[in-house]
Amino acid sequence: MREIRLHNTLTGRVEPLNPVHPGEVRIYTCGPTVYASAHIGNFRTFVFQDILRRFLRLQGYRVMQVMNVTDVDDRIIHSAAAAGIGIREFTEKYIKAFLEDIDALHIEMPEELVRATDHIDDMVALIEKLQQKGLTYTSDGSIYYRISKFPDYGKLSKIDLTGIQAGARVDVDQYDKENARDFALWKAPKPGEHFWETRIGPGRPGWHIECSAMSMKYLGETLDIHTGGVDLAFPHHENEIAQSEAATGKPFVRMWLHAEHLIIEGQKMSKSLGNFYTLRDLFSKGHKPSTIRFLLLSVPYRRQLNFTEDGLTQARNSVERLRNFVARLKTEQFQAGSNLEVQKRIEQAESEFDAGLANDINTAIALASVFDMVRDVNTSMDRKAFLQQDAPRAIAAMERFDAILSLLADDDDEKLAKLGFSTRKARMPAAEIEALIAERQAAKKSRDFKRADEIRQKLADSGILLEDSKDGTVRWKYK
Ligand SMILES: [Zn+2]
């Protein structure tokens, strides 16, 4: 198996992947908090994880990925109470929307998608373990983790704990490094709030205990990879380590992978600046799912991604280029034979593609290897150096790239229609177009020019452009 190297936040180095169970990689991914629609910054992280798991599988690993859905937290409890409905009912529509969004972006479903509220017992059991080990204390019915009892606290985020007041505590789930404090494992209910009656008292779990309990339940006490956005490293992931390692005495995670921020036109995305986008905001502006997927995956995950209008235009053209290339391979007539040079060129692209991804999932290198090959093969087709038996080889290479990139399937309109964005009429399927082109060729051959013109017009009306080349072959593309 090829060596795969990944940047580990814990050590600050790029290291070879070395899974606990040879041949299998167990990954935990912090999923969405379902109190609103996920924004495109979240999807940047989810697309990265999708590329990672697809690449591991292409390299022959079995992948076991668990993603949580945080369906209980401060914001959910307050919003559900304000709406006068239960939290399950409140979160349902956001979970549904999230699943539709990941489907639109061709993000594969993890092997397990688990809801926090289905695992309250597991969280209670983990908190009891921490209580038995003397790592907790109770105050006003809430249970806190005493960070001074865990000497490794801060090892992931490299936080400086000098000057932190012992016993000072924090009740909210999200806070900055400056506010490192004892954090809540279990929160006593406030009047009117949703709560569970449990062995450790009435209340609800803190956010951090969720991920420790669910990840270890499904993946074992030591995970191979834990991923998330860079903003989760502190306090969330730091607290996950403190909870899990104190409970088991074992390393919790071998490799921590964090995806960098996404910014919009050079600015931080924020509601107050009016540049806060969900996926559906972009769909309603006419952008296609494949365009967004391309843009999100085009920048290596550890670099900040600047999401711009120009970038969207380029992404759209890039996807078209790949699709047109495959269409050309499938429709153009080539002379018999095979060209060893062409085959070597394709092989070179495949090997550069894999090497790029094996080097900390460098998608920029992987994409460059694909587009360089597309350019060179197009040139050899123009020069008639590309032969019949080279076509299946080139198509196989494109399909192999697409096992990772997932951009070739021309299903944007279908995905948009599913989400209610059926603004344009559905495209004619490629098979139907090719059948009409064949019929037109036959009509021309039998000098039925009237029929040939009718077919050309019919295709034009459906938004399909034909290009007749001198050698009599026909290429087509969508307008
Ligand atoms: Zn998490």
Oligomeric grouping of the chains: single chain
Strand runs, count: 18
Q: Distance N terminus to C terminus? A: 43 Å
Strand-pairing-aware structural class: alpha/beta
Give Rg in angstroms.
27 Å
What fraction strand?
A: 15-25%
How would you sum up the global shape?
A: elongated
Question: Which ions and ligands are bound to the chains?
Answer: zinc ion
How would a crystallographer describe the biggest sheet?
6 strands, mixed
Average pLDDT, all residues: 93
Q: How many alpha or pi helices?
A: 15
* Stretches with pLDDT under 50, minimum 5 residues: none
What is the share of helical residues? 40-55%
What does this structure look like?
- The chain has helices at residues 40-58, 74-83, 87-104, 120-132, 207-219, 233-248, 279-284, 289-298, 309-331, 340-358, 363-382, 390-405, 412-418, 430-445, 449-461; strands at 5-8, 13-16, 24-29, 62-69, 112-115, 136-139, 142-145, 169-170, 182-187, 196-198, 201-205, 223-229, 253-259, 262-264, 267-268, 305-307, 464-468, 474-478.
- The chain is an alpha/beta fold and 479 residues long.
- The radius of gyration is 27 Å and the shape is elongated.
- The model has no long low-confidence stretch (mean pLDDT 93).
- The site of zinc ion has 4 residues, from loops.
- Zinc ion is lined by residues 30, 68, 211, 236.
